[in-house]
Amino acid sequence: MPIRALSDLKPGEAGVVARVLGDGPFRQRLLEMGLTRGARVEVEKTAPLRDPIEYLLKGYHVSLRKREAALILLQDEEGD
Amino acid sequence: MAKTLTIALAGNPNVGKTAIFNNLTGARQHVANWPGVTVAKKEGTIAFGGYEITIVDLPGTYSLSPYSLEEIVARNFLVDEAPDVVINVVDAANLERNLYLSAQIIDLGAKVVLALNMVDTAASQGIKIDQERLAQLWGVPVVATVGNRSHGMEELLAAAVRVAEERDPISRHIHIDYGPDVEPALRQIEDLLRGDAPLADGHYPRWLATKLLEKDPDALSRLEAHPRRQAVACRVQEAQRRLEKTVGEDAAVLIAERRYGFLGGTIREVQRQELAQRLALSEKLDVVLTHQILGFPVFLFFMWLLFQMTFTLGEAPKDLIESGVELLKGGVQGWLPASLLRDLLTEGIISGVGSVLVFLPQIMLLFLGIAFLDDTGYMARVAFIMDRIMHTLGLHGKSFIPMLMGFGCSVPAIMATRGLGSQRDRVLTMLLIPLMSCSARLPVYVLFAGVFFPRHAGQVIFGLYLLGIVMSVLLGMVFNRFLMRGQEEPFVMELPPYRLPTWRSVVVHMWDKAVMYLKRMATVILAAAVIIWFLGAFPRDASLSEAFARQQAALSATFAAREAALAADHGASAALAELKEEKIAVLGELQRQEKAALMQQTYIGRLGRFVEPVLAPLGFDWRMSVSLITGFVAKEVVVSTLGVLYETGDTPETATESLPQALQASGLTPAAALAFLVFTLLYTPCVATLVTLWRESGTTRWLLFSVTYQLSLAWGAAFITLKLGRLLPGISG
Fold first, then answer.
1. CATH architecture of the region B179-248
2. pLDDT tens-digit profile of B285-312?
3. What are phi and psi of A36, to 5 degrees?
4. Residue from B101, B293, B388 whose CB has the most chain A CBs within 10 Å, to mutate
5. Which residue of B has its CA nearest to A38?
């Protein structure tokens, strides 16, 4: 089964973060906002033009661009 | 003398920190910039418990990583100024993420009081927090507050004083355990750092060691003066390598994970959520406001409403200020004898500053509306739905509102870029804002479009607005690619729950902006007004004025003689009236000739003549060149200058009546008129805008760049317009 990224999820679906790719300030920012290993993220909805996407994380709402969400890899569903 | 204390207020954005700051300091607060950066620093001093307490409101940040201006400012203040106490405001309904910053502040070794804010909202969502347990676990006093109702403020200050005096029973310093992989490395680096006396106090070494391990760029620079710099750097690198090898992760990830692990543990211990009630109302609102189809129309409606409100409600106070300025001018004119000083006061200072001051009511209203929408949480949704579009210009969704404000006036629009996260986004947005056609340019469009394209005036004006937008898109892409490559910010943006703002915070916000605007007018814009007046008034050619005075005297004498002759003949009252009219017309004509002649030989007139060869390829005559130069004061001045130079007078009445005829008679082609409009749209914005851009970008570099690119763009676009216009015979429609 291919590795899924956060950007592959559809509204209403949820996943658990396995790893954040990328580097530098960008990665640091994602970690600080709570996108660490084991964090559960739910897709709330997409913006009218399909990008960015709103997620529910640790009880708050955060938006990410699709390209950025693609850097957040999820755990296999079996491992949930 | 009272003992003094410094308290810093720190917290995430959208947690009600500003409301708490307003409650604590009341009216005793002032705004300035943090040294060296254009981030607002709010400070207030109060008396409490025998202390004179200075409260500093740090910018709202999610963390203390040195990546945004706000974070650098907040962190440097905490590290370098070492405030006596830090009051950390956290949102009780969103405790876990909020505590991340708290953990960082505690790592810094600061003395902390936790303000558990908005406990009422949290309670309404079924969230219960065991304050005592939280205080025990973290070693910090916890005070429940409701910022927008001013609950818990006394307790907050009392706790801060207790902590400062080190007599709080709970307050102690805790170390967050970063795990068996990181801790030994930390301890080794810490020991090395501690060997150096200046660094050995407080908890600073542990913090610095953590940051070094996280590859924090700012931490490395803090090492510079350290005698064991080399040894420390070696040890850090070695530790990083070992972590990569054994755990397969870098230290930043491990530390962030452990921090969140600690936060997760805390939450499990102290927080009970009875039933997972989500913010029902907030989410229902969001269904409509960010709806796939309805989102845009609803947004456009709000913006329309905002601008309608701004311009209709602002009209009356604007007129009031306008007549006030006129009254003052008249007063000074009556009070002082005709002199250079009087001209300086009336024509230079009062008119110059007045022309910018009239925008104040509308600017205040615009900021009031925007502060209101911002506090409700809607602005984050605007950024959310607009991001896809703004991203094509390399900008963040948040840049949309400042750009939109540019259609009203570039000055508040540039001021509004302060809300953007990164310096890069701010500068890029500032550079593009003047391309949004501001309201001062409209009178020029109306005049020329009305004269040269009477049947298509509406389309021409609409086309100009559109051209500005198209140019901003093209240049945004160009600047993004060639000027600011590879620095784009990630779009990690919180969408806070919708809230009803308090009037106090909205009004304070508006007031801050108004003060900023007024300060600027009292300084730089005043100076600019005086300089421009000087250029328009000097050199004075006394012989020219005398020649006109002589001519006037001669004409008056002739008329007087003719009047006397007619008066002798009793039956000629009709002829007498006719003669009087003729006299007024002839003398008026002479006066207009004088004004035009005087203007031509001033520095501005000479400048206009000087640049005429440069503008001649665009089909502009010298009058148009001069008017464009005076348009630097404010773009609507282009019209009144043309009035003077075409000798039709410079009052609004003549501008609408005889100036069009004069323009028509001048032999200007429609193609050249269109080129002139394109030039007016795109060339250097007014002096107030440039001053604001200079101040807000923080460097003269971007000011010079802005002037250069807009002048070249305007020339190029006007030239193309002229050439294309000549190819289209139908253009004169």
1. Orthogonal Bundle (1.10)
2. 888 898 888 989 999 899 889 888 887 8
3. -100, 165
4. B388
5. B257
pLDDT over threshold 60, residue A78: no
Token pair recorded at residue B5: 């204390």
ipTM: 0.93
CA B91 to chain centre: 28
Structure tokens at B543: 């012989």
Half-sphere exposure of B80 (CA within 13 A, CB side): 9
Q: Using an 8 Å CB-CB cutoff, list chain B residues near A53.
A: none
- Looking at the complex, does the CB of residue A32 fall below 8 Å from at least one CB of chain B? yes
- The answer to whether the predicted template modeling score (pTM) of the entire model surpasses 0.90 is no
pLDDT digits (tens, 9 = 90+) for B325-341: 889 988 988 888 888 88
Nearest Cα residue to B440 out of B636, B694, B648: B636
Q: What is the CATH number of domain B3-164?
A: 3.40.50.300
**Helical axes B229-246 vs B179-194, angle rounded to 10°:** 170
For chain B, domain boundaries: 3-164, 179-248
Q: Using CB atoms, which residue from A27, A46, A63 is nearest to B495?
A: A63
- Cite the DSSP H helix spans in B456-601: 457-482, 503-520, 526-537, 542-568, 573-600
- Is residue A1 one of the residues assigned to a domain? no
Read off the pLDDT of residues B379-403 as tens digits, 9 standing for 90 and up: 999 999 999 999 888 888 999 989 9
Give tens-digit pLDDT for B126-145: 899 999 999 999 999 999 99
Residues of A within 8 A of B252 (CB-CB) are 27-28, 31
Asked if the Cβ–Cβ distance from B387 to A52 is below 8 Å, we say yes
Question: DSSP assignment, residue A57?
Answer: E
A79 inside 8 A of chain B by CB: no
CATH code (residue A70): 2.30.30.90
- Is-cis flag, bond preceding B539, omega within 30? yes
Contact B303, B167 (CB under 8 A): no
Domain that holds residue A17: 6-79
- The single residue listed with the structure tokens 């969408």 is B495
Query: How far does the CA of residue A1 sit from the closest CA of chain B (Å)?
Result: 23
Closest Cα to residue B627, out of B712, B538, B718, B536? B536
Instruction: Say if A46 falls within a structural domain.
Output: yes
A–B CB contacts, 8 A cutoff, strictly below: 109
Name the residue among B72, B184, B63, B165 with its Cα closest to residue B113: B165
Cross-chain Cβ contact B63/A32 below 8 Å? yes
Q: Does B496 touch chain A (CB under 8 A)?
A: yes
Average pLDDT over residues B715-733: 80
Residue A40, domain member (yes or no): yes
- Nearest CB to A62: which of B93, B391, B495? B495
* Total domains present in chain A: 1
* pLDDT tens track for B185-208: 999 888 888 776 555 455 578 888
